[in-house]
């Protein structure tokens, strides 16, 4: 993939990311620039909220 111009998240916009994993696992994540800016060290954005990486691992284990 090749990109051009400024690469930045814009305020007031919602972004989406879709990804596929092994075994047919597919997920969608929606977030804003403010969501990501609110993350503290050691946190990730998943399931519409900030969570620790430990909580994320448990969430993924439950869904896979």
UniProtKB/TrEMBL annotation:
Organism name: Streptomyces nodosus
Protein name (record): Uncharacterized protein
Classification lineage: Bacteria, Bacillati, Actinomycetota, Actinomycetes, Kitasatosporales
Domain of life where this protein originates: Bacteria
């Amino acid at each position: 993939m090749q990109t051009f111009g400024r690469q930045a998240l814009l305020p007031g916009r919602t972004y989406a990311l879709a990804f596929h994993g092994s075994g047919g696992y597919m997920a969608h994540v929606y977030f804003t620039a403010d969501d990501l800016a609110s993350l503290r060290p050691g946190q990730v954005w998943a399931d519409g909220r900030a969570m620790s990486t430990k909580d994320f691992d448990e969430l993924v284990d439950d869904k896979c």
